[in-house]
Amino acid sequence: TRPTTAEWSEFESKLPGKAPQTVWDTALNLPGPHPETRENCPVLYRDRNGWCPYSERVWLGLLYKGIPFDEVLVDNQGSKPRFWYDIGGGTTPAVVWPDGTFQGESLDLLVAMDDRLPADTPQLLPKDQGLRDEALRIASSLTSVLPRRCRPSSRAAFLYRGNGPVPRRDFEASLDELEELLSLHEGPFFLGGALTVADCAWVPFLERFAVQLPLLHRGLDLRDSSKRPRLAAWYDALEHQVPCYAGRVQGDASSWAAVLAVAGYGNAGSAESYQAPENLGLDLGNSVVGEQVWAAFVAGKEGLGKTPAQEAARRLYHNREAIVTDFMKNRSESFERSLVDQALRVCVTVVLADKIYPSLLEGVREEVRAVAKELASYLSKRVCVPRDMGRLPADVYRKKLSQL
């Protein structure tokens, strides 16, 4: 008799083992002590949800450098461990460098990376003093370029003023100024052909704006190359030329739309029903280009899937107990845990499959299929990017699960 679903042990043999990096979520380990981290590695303290744009700056910089580092995830909206207040200022981001020095402030951390980390890593500041000064000026220009008197919320940074969104005309003026800054050099990045501190400083905000501004001002498409070609080229270059960005740091449109609709922490009301602009690159992970970007990102790294699909399946596999518990807790109808476990194995099977065909789930009971369909819908809505995984595997994850 054909088994209804693969056993977890079968998936284990197909998926990579645990990565050497320590990623410690303090919210799941309260009131525990500081985690064990590796010697001679920086330790990044960032927010656990991936919402803090200042944490994203430093996260991107460290990944771009390509050096090993450990992470301690802090719940900025919730309870924090005592050690977090003991070792520094109590705000994210922060880094403990290999020599034990604690440092905060995102721009200071980006600037320190070239001196603190090996010289053979990609440099974030040009050697030329004039270009170096220009990079720092652009990196520091956020509050002077963006509309004034806005709320620096991590969920909806600089989008609201008073009781409502910043007027469209104010943002149009800011975007035109950004287009001018990007036109000062050949591009596609602020200082030319390589990522610098200037780009890292702006990435988190422009990433969110590309999704969230069209929700607040219909038709305001930041990636329209006919209106702002330099800005559109900058977005494309980030996704295609900086593998660690699309591979791990970048959030996706569904997540940033959902975050915008959450009241509080600087948000004022909720956005319109979400309709993404067509050219947001929402399906990058399912493309040949996406596979190539992912391959460049994981090259030489242990513990990551070889493809975006394998990485999405790996995340499901390693978090299977929590996923089953979370799904059952949020259901009005009661299910046997073993049934939900089988349904999750069906979901992993679908995510790993090159394509969905009738015989793929042959032998799976209708009851299990029904729960798997419901679970797939739940997982697609529940996943938050980049909290749970990078944008490339998330693209595959959502598309594959939608076929259930």
Automatic annotation (TrEMBL):
Q: Where are its TM segments located? A: none
Q: Where is the GST C-terminal domain?
A: 125-255
Coiled coil ranges? none
Q: Which GO terms describe its cellular component?
A: cytoplasm
Q: Record's InterPro entries? A: Glutathione-S-Trfase_C-like (IPR010987), Glutathione-S-Trfase_C_sf (IPR036282), Glutathione_S-Trfase_N (IPR004045), GST_Omega/HSP26 (IPR050983), Thioredoxin-like_sf (IPR036249)
Under the heading PANTHER family, the entry gives: GLUTATHIONE S-TRANSFERASE, PTHR43968
- This protein is called what? GST C-terminal domain-containing protein
Q: Which organism is it from?
A: Cymbomonas tetramitiformis
